[in-house]
Amino acid sequence: MITKTRALMVASLAIAASTAGAVDVRQMVIPESVGVAVEPAHQAHVLGEAIRDSQVKRTPTIWIVNEPSRTRALMPAEEARLDAIDAEAAEEARHVRATVLFGFDKISPLEWSALENTIADARRNGSVVKLVGHADDVGSDAYNQRLSENRAISVARYLIKHGVSKKNIKVSGRGKREPVSIVDSSMNRRVEIDVVKAAGGAL
């Protein structure tokens, strides 16, 4: 009896599968009354209610997650990274930078106006003024080294004349070793000024 029933079921399934537009009997039919969530990747393989014309009605699965915003404590690595950024910003705020340009083979700059924004900070107690002279690539290394140093000394004299303490000024020359442009050599004839303000804003 059981074998007979099984044979009838197999035959009926074969007939159903052979009809045009029939539902694939290998797939599970899930009625809408059953609350089953289907992953989007498998949505196409799940059949909804079979309607009269043997078409299959598929209902797209919509995933909605409602979660209130909340704060969380920073991880140690995040805390350290933010502290490093803050420290870097605080250190950069202590620097006032400027550049003065020079004519070819000259030790007096084309103009002094670039220094105007640095003098007030350079006068402060505890400030350090770093002057680094540079030259273009015309001439020997030794000649350009002396030229770059003389340019920095010229800027130092100007600052001293305007009230900056000599002991706060550090002068050096880099010759032609550190060009900023390989196209416009006039940009390389320069003195870079870096005023490092005293910590705490000492007057």
Automatic annotation (TrEMBL):
Its main location: membrane. CDD domains: OmpA_C-like. PROSITE patterns: OMPA_1, OMPA_2. Keywords: Cell outer membrane, Membrane, Signal. Residues 1-22 form the signal peptide. One of its GO terms (cellular component) is cell outer membrane. It comes from the Bacteria. The keyword Ribonucleoprotein does not apply. Residues 89-199 form the OmpA-like domain. It is found in: Cell outer membrane. PANTHER family: LIPOPROTEIN YIAD-RELATED, STATOR ELEMENT OF FLAGELLAR MOTOR COMPLEX. This is OmpA family protein. It comes from Pseudomonas veronii.
